[in-house]
Design brief:
Layout (H helix, E strand, L loop, with lengths): L7 H26 L3 H27 L7 H17 L4 E4 L6 E6 L22 H13 L4 E7 L8 E7 L5 H4 L4
Antiparallel strand pairs: 1-2, 2-4, 3-4
Length: about 180
């Protein structure tokens, strides 16, 4: 028996809210388990990486996106399709260099911090949403794209925006993607 189409967004919202609440509890537990913020950040990145390596298959199957021919196309797919599909937001994209291999995703709204007002006391270097960086890095690696993904700005740390920086580490071979005539 199939589910009515009109009920899917409701299930998606419930799953997102559950994820956000569970994520907050996870970060709180990691802060209890690890004294250093760097250890918590590293653990969140590692956990996100594992999620990203598995999530990319679901994303490719559900989104029906085609092959991308440039880094800017890849970033647009991440922002407009992946973030919308899994977190219900669409970050804006900026290119940060003339080589067109460094980009920023600007999140006007970050669902992972919906129930968080500030970082825990004494945790000023905690990167609360570092899981997102690991997810992006893991997913990109599974499609053979090495990237450095880091938080550049974070509203939880008093910045005006939340910004994720993505730097592709290898120049894409444009000849590889040209169509044969």
């Amino acid at each position: 028996m199939s589910r009515p189409a009109h009920r899917r967004p409701e299930y998606h919202k419930i799953n997102k809210d559950l994820f956000v609440l569970t994520y907050g509890a996870l970060v709180a537990q990691l802060c209890k388990d690890y004294e250093k913020d760097e250890d918590v950040n590293q653990y969140l990145d590692k956990m996100g990486y594992g999620i990203g390596t598995r999530l990319v298959e679901d994303f490719l199957a559900r989104s029906c996106v085609g092959r991308c021919h440039s880094y800017s196309e890849i970033i647009d797919i991440i922002a407009q399709v992946a973030f919308k599909m899994y977190l219900g937001i669409t970050p804006s994209v900026t290119c940060n260099n003339s080589s067109k291999n460094e980009f920023s995703l600007i999140l006007d709204k970050n669902p992972l911090v919906e129930f968080v007002e500030e970082l825990p006391a004494g945790r000023s270097s905690l990167c609360y949403c570092n899981l997102l960086c690991g997810i992006i890095r893991g997913a990109l690696e599974m499609v053979h794209l090495a990237a450095d993904v880091t938080f550049l700005q974070d509203r939880l740390k008093g910045d005006s925006v939340t910004e994720i920086g993505i730097t592709f580490l290898k120049k894409q071979d444009e000849k590889k993607y040209r169509r044969k005539k």
